[in-house]
From TrEMBL:
Subunit structure, interactors included: Interacts with RHOH. Interacts with the GDP-bound inactive forms of RAB3A, RAB3B, RAB3C, RAB5A, RAB5B, RAB5C, RAB8A, RAB8B, RAB10, RAB12, RAB35, and RAB43; binds RAB3D to a lesser extent. Interacts with DZIP1; this interaction negatively regulates the interaction of GDI2 with GDP-bound RAB8A.
Intracellular or extracellular location(s): Cytoplasm; Golgi apparatus, trans-Golgi network; Membrane
Organism this protein belongs to: Microcebus murinus
Protein family according to the UniProt entry: Belongs to the Rab GDI family.
Membrane topology label: Peripheral membrane protein
Gene Ontology terms, MF aspect: GTPase activator activity; Rab GDP-dissociation inhibitor activity
Taxonomy of the source species: Eukaryota, Metazoa, Chordata, Craniata, Vertebrata
Protein name: Rab GDP dissociation inhibitor
Length: 400
């Protein structure tokens, strides 16, 4: 291990694995280590079910009614990928007119503006133009545009329209849902990017204790593990590896619920996302529900996993999520966790230590993607260009 690397990555959460893959494709020499013996870090998929009971310190073992333990792959932090429910709203005449406008909108073509200035007109005024009611506004802003607060209402409308356009185009691609979800759980994603890194020469070491991050003259120069030192020019890591360089800005409560039935009023869907807008439950933060099932190879046949999450606002977090839990009744088993929202105090400009943000309460990857792009820009000084990444891959494999 006594070698020099361009980049050392600590932790195998999705953020770290994606950045590891990106840096390897960019031609960097990458060493990726994790103290855990499995991929995924805080965003791991736990299997078998017995391990989930142990992780949450529940007494006994899963009842026989839950099927075979190895049939379960339970995500600790579930998130959908942008790619059912509430479609009745799309039948409203005014909302349909609004969606047609969004579909035709092109910020480079003033003929599609219809009197709206995308750089000046607020989204609140756009909603007024189409005479949309409060319920539709809540649905549009929080379930389609995926905003977590209503601050966007008084901002120029261009970004919001493009967010809704992304949702609509993603929905059109597959017909039923704008989201994708990997079979066998999200734990497959970090492993996929780990394999990408390995293809481009990255080295992976699991179950590797990290003794020290070595900093000299304020700048990282390497990592010490089991008495050996690997040198590096840059370091990427999750907050757990650098507790002196992060701060707590809040907490997230997550409740994993095992069900023997689909969620009511979802047309017996085998997966769905429910977003309860904050102002409908007198809160500052939305409440999220993500439901998946045996159709995704994450649960025993006939079983469903629903995960409720939100940002903690009071000293009684479990009371805060009651509106969501009531939608899921009856619940066969619950697993409750409260985790700190940690963000870096060191942006890495001087130290060259680049720290990811803890995963928030949202059930989609939009905020995680923003974090990845932000870290990439701080590391390289340039914006992330997905098309350039595809070109580099194609140069090696000759693919379309």
């Amino acid at each position: 291990m006594n070698e020099e690397y361009d980049v050392i990555v600590l932790g195998t959460g999705l953020t770290e694995c994606i950045l590891s893959g990106i840096m390897s494709v960019n031609g960097k020499k990458v060493l990726h280590m994790d103290r855990n013996p499995y991929y995924g870090g805080e965003s791991a998929s736990i299997t078998p079910l017995e391990d989930l009971y142990k992780r949450f310190k529940l007494p006994g073992t899963p009842p026989a009614s839950m099927g075979r333990g190895r049939d379960w792959n339970v995500d600790l932090i579930p998130k959908f990928l942008m790619a059912n429910g509430l479609m009745g709203l799309f039948e409203k005449r005014r909302f349909r007119k609004f969606l047609v406008y969004v579909a035709n909108f092109d910020e480079k073509d003033t003929r599609t503006f219809e009197g709206i200035d995308p750089k000046k007109t607020t989204m609140r005024d756009v909603y007024k133009k189409f005479d949309l009611g409060q319920d539709v506004i809540d649905f549009t802003g929080h379930a389609l545009a995926l905003y977590r607060t209503d601050d966007y209402l008084d901002q120029p409308c261009c970004e919001t329209i493009n967010r809704i356009k992304l949702y609509s185009e993603s929905l059109a691609r597959y017909g039923k849902s704008p989201y994708l979800y990997p079979l066998y759980g999200l734990g497959e994603l970090p492993q996929g990017f780990a394999r990408l890194s390995a293809i481009y020469g990255g080295t992976y070491m699991l179950n590797k204790p990290i003794e020290e991050i070595i900093v000299q003259n304020g700048k990282v120069i390497g990592v010490k593990s089991e008495g050996e030192i690997a040198r590096c020019k840059q370091l990427i890591c999750d907050p757990s590896y650098v507790k002196d360089r992060v701060e707590k800005v809040g907490q997230v409560i997550r409740v994993i619920c095992v069900l023997s039935h689909p969620i009511k009023n979802t047309n017996d869907a085998n997966s769905c996302q429910i977003i309860i807008p904050q102002n409908q439950v007198n809160r500052k933060s939305d409440i999220y529900v993500c439901m998946i099932s045996s159709a995704h190879n994450v649960a025993a046949q006939g079983k469903y996993i629903a995960i409720v999450s939100t940002t903690v606002e009071t000293k009684e977090p479990e009371k805060e999520i009651r509106p969501a839990l009531e939608l899921l009744e009856p619940i066969e088993q619950k697993f409750v966790s409260i985790s700190d929202l940690l963000v870096p105090t060191d942006l890495g400009t001087e130290s060259q230590i680049f720290i990811s943000r803890a995963y928030d309460a949202t059930t989609h990857f939009e905020t995680t993607c923003d974090d990845i792009k932000d870290i990439y820009k701080r590391m390289t000084g340039s914006e992330f260009d997905f098309e350039e990444m595809k070109r580099k891959k194609n140069d090696i494999y000759g693919e379309d």
